[in-house]
């Protein structure tokens, strides 16, 4: 199999990314609070007073909310193995890593809210702690969690998927730079007991995935290969190879015949000595027929 590309999380360690995400978080939370709680007049009063601006707006509102991003990015980097060690190769895997990231988002907010309650209590009371009053503040944990959830998800998921997008661009560039030329894919590099070797595509009957092993069958021999079927399909589709199901890629030159089997499925036979059979769905068979016409 080909080596899978690791999912890079260093994006979350960049200072400029942290500052930008923190600013977005603080401003978004402030905007929602002002609109939802109708605090426009209070905001205007704060902006007109330098002391209030520095103490309340910058620290109490913006800086505290931005601290949530610091916690999120820290947990993202510490728990990266939980999300995924490898870059998602299809839409289903993108959804999967996003769902896994939701756990880290919710966990980060659970850590942030208590810290925000304590910090704001100490800051607003000029570093004097009133135990009973502080405990009463924790009764509002659920409300505060709900108010912070939407902006937190918006900012967190935005930066998480920006990272995926940026890495996707780098991956495509690398694939383009490493893509084999048409001359290079006239042969396929395979593995046997003695090492690696090149075999002409014209000798290749099919490639089949068995568990985690990728087998390459020629008329006389069986080899192995480290590339995945997705990679091979992209490389060999223009060379007359057809993906007949999730686990098999065949050379259409060596397709012998096909026949209806049962339950809307067909059997496709190959031109080897055993007339090896593969099962194909009806829908997939329609597409294969149009490709087989090209060999007639």
Structure description:
With 296 residues, this protein is an alpha+beta fold. Helix content is 55%, strand content 18%. It has nine helices and ten strands. It has a five-stranded antiparallel β-sheet with strand order 5-4-3-7-6. Strands 8-9-10 form a three-stranded antiparallel β-sheet. A two-stranded antiparallel sheet has the order 1-2. Strand 8 (255-260) and strand 9 (265-270) form a beta hairpin. It is elongated. The chain starts with 14 loop residues before the first helix and ends with a helix.
Beta content comes to 15-25%
Mean pLDDT: 84
Count the beta strands: 10
SSE run: HHHHHHHEEEEEHEEEEEH
Which secondary-structure class do the elements indicate?
alpha+beta
Uncertain runs are none
Radius of gyration computed on alpha carbons? 29 Å
How far apart lie the N and C ends? 33 Å
Total DSSP helices: 9
Which helices and strands appear, and what pairs or packs with what?
Blueprint: H1 15-36, H2 40-48, H3 50-78, H4 80-83, H5 91-124, H6 131-137, H7 141-178, E1 187-192, E2 195-200, E3 204-210, E4 213-218, E5 222-224, H8 229-236, E6 241-245, E7 248-251, E8 255-260, E9 265-270, E10 277-281, H9 282-292
Antiparallel strand pairs: 1-2, 3-4, 3-7, 4-5, 6-7, 8-9, 9-10
Helix pairs in contact: 1-3, 1-7, 2-3, 3-5, 5-7
Keywords, please?
55% helix; five-stranded antiparallel sheet; 296 residues; single chain; 9 helices; 10 strands; alpha+beta
């Amino acid at each position: 199999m080909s080596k899978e590309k690791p999912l890079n999380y260093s994006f979350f360690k960049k200072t400029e990314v942290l500052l930008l995400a923190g600013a977005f978080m603080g401003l978004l939370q402030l905007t929602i609070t002002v609109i939802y709680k109708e605090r426009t007049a209070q905001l205007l009063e704060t902006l007109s007073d330098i002391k209030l601006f520095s103490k309340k707006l910058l620290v109490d509102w913006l800086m505290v909310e931005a601290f949530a991003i610091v916690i999120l990015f820290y947990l993202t980097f510490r728990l990266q193995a939980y999300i995924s060690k490898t870059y998602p190769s299809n839409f289903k895997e993108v959804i999967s890593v996003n769902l896994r990231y939701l756990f880290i988002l919710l966990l980060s907010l659970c850590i942030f809210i208590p810290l925000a309650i304590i910090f704001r209590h100490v800051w607003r009371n000029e570093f004097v702690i009133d135990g009973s009053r502080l405990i009463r503040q924790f009764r509002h944990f659920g409300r505060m969690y709900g108010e912070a959830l939407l902006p937190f998800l918006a900012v967190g998921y935005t930066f998480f998927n920006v990272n995926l997008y940026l890495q996707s661009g780098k991956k495509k560039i690398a694939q383009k730079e490493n893509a084999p030329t048409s001359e290079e894919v006239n042969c396929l590099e395979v593995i046997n007991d003695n090492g690696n070797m090149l075999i002409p595509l014209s000798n290749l009957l099919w490639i089949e995935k068995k568990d985690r092993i990728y087998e390459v069958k020629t008329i006389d021999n069986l080899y192995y290969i480290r590339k995945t079927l997705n990679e091979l399909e992209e490389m060999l589709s223009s060379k007359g190879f057809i993906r007949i199901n999730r686990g098999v890629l065949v050379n259409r030159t060596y397709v012998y015949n096909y026949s209806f089997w049962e339950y809307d499925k067909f059997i496709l036979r190959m031109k080897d000595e055993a007339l090896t059979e593969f099962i194909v769905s009806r829908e997939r068979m329609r597409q294969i027929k149009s490709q087989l016409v090209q060999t007639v």
